[in-house]
Amino acid sequence: MKKSFKCGIFLILLLPVLLAGCIEIDISTGVDANYDAYLVYNIALDVREFDAQYQDLMKNALNRIGWHYQEYLGFVVDLHLDADPCTMVMTRRVGNDSFEQAYASLREMLTDESITPFMRVDMAYQRFERQDKFLFNAMTDFTQVVRLSNAEELPPALFEFFEESLLSAEGTITLSLPASEIVDSTHNAEVRNNQATMVAPLSYTGQTELELTAVVNLFRDGTPGGTFDDIVGEQEWFRDIAFYIGCAAAGLFLIILLVAALTKKRRNRR
Question: What's the predicted TM-score (pTM) here?
Answer without folding.
Answer: 0.74
